[in-house]
Design goal:
16 strands; about 375 residues; Rossmann fold; alpha/beta
């Protein structure tokens, strides 16, 4: 038995079954033994799964174009003065400053691609950047400065928590799907939550009374009608994360890239067995309860809940669209002199059925009006 399996089993024997959300938290984020804690990078051909970052620097290059436009929008909104507060205010950040905050930043590969492109194509924007990388894995945080290379001096914040008083852009690429989620099932006795127990040396599921009334409230807001036998996930942690991000963003933009669905589809017949998925070496795991810390665990994001949470937290919804349309708006199809390797990367990022259609982009704003961002040229295009 691995150390993490033993630790979880001991906790269950001592305190009783734990919610699947707690099991997922320990499996992925235990500070020493969790999946994301043990190595600085988990993706790519040698890892367990692919992300948009793994196809090459083109993804970061296009994000850099969007971030530069957002910076100029903020400069225009403020007329170059004090970020909307009196210049003598203690809350006024240094001028110029443009916070670029990546949550779930890993070892900083995406940030490096973004900064390489910004330095090359928009040095004025680059010179204003104050970089923050938010990451739970100690190994990944330790590797960030080396990964950033010539841009390491821009890194002002590397920590587990989001920085406060952000004036600029917060962004997260494939973070919310990996936040610990509650799992539920509809039984003949009503709604039950999935807990993890130990029996005969193995982890097993137990269906029990939900651990918090927030779960039923969440499903009620979603209008979820779960027939007997149906299963689903309720990601309260994602809602909480959006609230924190909105609170810490003083002025600027929040950009979320992840895979997910609207509530009508997420809690409909197509996903009646839930969306929990686990992969190891690019192969889905049949019973990932038995290998905590050894494989990734994710669940599809509830796009509707995230949008409503952001609105309630004071953010404006600027756009919601497939990654394909977001990247097309930024001019991915117009890149000239593209070598074969980049053309293949382009297909991965854009083609239906791949990252282009499975990944959605949500963009929110705070006190920046409703600018016509290039990435939102296709407005609301969700498939």
């Amino acid at each position: 038995m691995s150390l993490l399996r033993e630790l979880i089993a001991d906790r269950i024997r001592t305190s009783g079954p734990i919610s699947f959300a707690e099991f997922m938290e320990l499996s992925l984020y235990h500070p020493e033994l969790g999946y994301y804690a043990r190595t600085a990078q988990k993706t790519g051909r040698a890892g367990d799964f692919f992300t948009s970052v793994d196809v090459g620097p083109i993804f970061g290059e296009l994000l850099a174009k969007q971030f530069a436009e957002m910076w100029r929008v903020m400069e225009h909104v403020e007329n170059g003065v004090g970020r909307g507060v009196p210049q003598n205010s203690a809350n006024t950040p240094p001028d110029p400053v443009f916070d670029l905050v990546e949550a779930g930043a890993g070892n900083g590969r995406l940030a490096r691609d973004v900064l390489d492109a910004a330095q090359r194509s928009d040095p004025e924007c680059y010179s204003a950047i104050r970089l923050s990388l938010v990451e739970q894995s100690p190994a990944a945080r330790a590797a960030q400065r080396e990964t950033l290379g010539p841009h390491a001096a821009l890194l002002g914040h590397s920590a587990v928590e989001l920085p406060e008083d952000v004036w600029g852009v917060m962004f997260a690429n494939e973070l919310l799907d990996a936040l610990p989620t509650h799992a539920v099932a509809m039984t003949e006795d009503g709604l039950r939550e999935v807990f993890v127990d130990v029996a005969d040396g193995h982890f097993v599921e137990r269906l029990q009374t939900p651990s918090t009334p927030r779960i039923a409230d969440y499903l009620s807001r979603a209008g979820a009608v779960m027939p007997q036998g149906a299963r689903a996930e309720v990601n309260l942690a994602a809602e909480d994360w959006i609230k924190r991000a909105a609170n810490n963003l003083r002025k600027g933009f929040l950009l979320i890239i992840d895979y997910g669905h609207e509530e009508a589809e997420l809690y409909g017949g197509a996903h009646a067995t839930g969306t929990l998925t686990s992969v190891k070496r690019h192969t889905q795991m049949a019973d990932f309860l038995q290998e905590p810390g050894e494989c990734d665990i994710t669940a599809h994001v509830d796009l509707t809940a995230l949008t409503h949470t952001a609105e309630r937290a004071g953010l404006d919804v600027l756009g919601r669209l497939d990654q394909t349309y977001f990247l097309l708006g930024l001019g991915i199809a117009d890149l000239e002199g593209m070598p074969l390797k980049q053309r293949l990367a382009l297909k991965t990022l854009l083609l239906p059925g791949g990252l282009g259609s499975t990944h959605k982009v949500l963009i929110f704003g705070k006190d920046v009006g409703r600018p016509a961002l290039k990435g939102l040229s296709y407005k609301i295009r969700l498939t």
